[in-house]
């Protein structure tokens, strides 16, 4: 009996200790839950504060919208005025070119050249019997007389042969070729030209009376010069791009830049001159309408040209069957760019 009571007492004591441990554990859990409840409350308040901050930021961003709109208007205003300034810059350059051409032309007119190189003018033509006499007359009435005019008849089927036969001047020479195109005709002219300096004139344009004198001065006084170009006057620049027309005549004289030249032409063929016999002075006969650009790129690949502040020719846009901006324009443009790209 005594042993049984001792055993029960031991069991009761162990249960009492277990109960005490459970009570202690409950108190610990209660404290833990209390602490975490406070932490959750603190986080909730923090989130509320951040929410208020975000709300305030949104309000400030909304308040900035009028400023952003004002900035957009300012950017549009600046873009418009930048374009206007660029246009003003172009017009200013044009005025400077016109002034330099005016001064040089006045000086050139009174200049006396005792000697100078013989200049060959190469003029390809095809079925332009009505226009040819005007172009030829502009060459034969030049202020500089030491010249020859090489007319290359590119298999004309109109009265061009009869018109050529009627030119009674020993300085006029002519040859007739198969219909190979304008570049092939110019090469044929180069093959027979006897001048020390070469220049060109299309049959629908006319040469300024002082152009050959300007070339004679440039190549005679500057032996280091191999190629040169001058300005030209376009009668209606809107018609150049096949537009309706109606604009006033405009002087075109652009400064030389190799970078710009590799992107677009800087001179018309009738405003280009070079020394005879240059290896680069040949026309790519696969090109229909951009032989002049290709030639100028080739002539200036190693040495910059002289830009002569003089009018070389008067460029006409009203002749029929013009080559400019024709059906091969895109293909020719891509080919020239590809040949001379850096």
TrEMBL record:
Alphabetic keyword roster: Transferase
Source organism, top-level taxon: Bacteria
GO molecular function: transferase activity
The keyword Protease is annotated on this UniProt entry: no
Domain Glycosyltransferase 2-like stretches: 120-225
Listed name of the protein: Glycosyl transferase family 2
The species this protein was found in: Amycolatopsis xylanica
């Amino acid at each position: 009996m005594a042993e049984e009571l001792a055993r029960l007492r031991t069991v009761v004591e162990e249960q009492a200790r277990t109960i005490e441990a459970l009570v202690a554990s409950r108190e610990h859990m209660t404290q833990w839950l209390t602490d975490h409840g406070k932490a959750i409350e603190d986080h909730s308040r923090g989130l509320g504060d951040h929410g208020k901050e975000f709300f305030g930021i949104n309000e400030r961003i909304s308040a900035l919208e009028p400023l952003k709109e004002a900035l957009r208007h300012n950017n549009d205003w600046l873009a418009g005025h930048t374009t206007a300034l660029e246009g003003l810059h172009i017009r200013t350059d044009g005025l400077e070119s016109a002034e330099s051409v005016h001064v040089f032309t006045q000086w050139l007119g009174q200049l006396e050249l005792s000697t100078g190189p013989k200049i060959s003018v190469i003029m390809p033509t095809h079925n332009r019997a009505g226009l040819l006499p005007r172009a030829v007359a502009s060459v034969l009435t030049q202020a500089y007389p030491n010249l020859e005019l090489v007319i290359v008849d590119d298999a004309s089927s109109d009265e061009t042969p009869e018109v050529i036969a009627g030119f009674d001047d020993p300085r006029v020479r002519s040859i007739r070729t198969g219909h190979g195109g304008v570049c092939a005709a110019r090469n044929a002219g180069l093959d027979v030209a006897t001048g020390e300096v070469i220049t060109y004139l299309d049959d629908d344009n006319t040469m300024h009376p002082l152009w050959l004198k300007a070339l004679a001065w440039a190549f005679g006084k500057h032996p280091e010069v191999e190629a040169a170009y001058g300005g030209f006057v376009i009668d209606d620049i809107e018609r150049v791009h096949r537009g309706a027309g109606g604009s006033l005549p405009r002087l075109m004289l652009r400064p030389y830049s190799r970078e710009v030249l590799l992107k677009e032409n800087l001179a018309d063929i009738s405003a280009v001159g070079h020394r005879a016999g240059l290896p680069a002075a040949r026309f790519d006969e696969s090109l229909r309408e951009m032989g002049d650009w290709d030639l100028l790129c080739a002539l200036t690949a190693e040495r910059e040209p002289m830009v002569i502040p003089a009018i070389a020719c008067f460029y006409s846009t009203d002749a029929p069957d013009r080559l400019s901006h024709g059906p091969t324009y895109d293909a020719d443009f891509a080919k020239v760019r590809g040949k001379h790209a850096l």
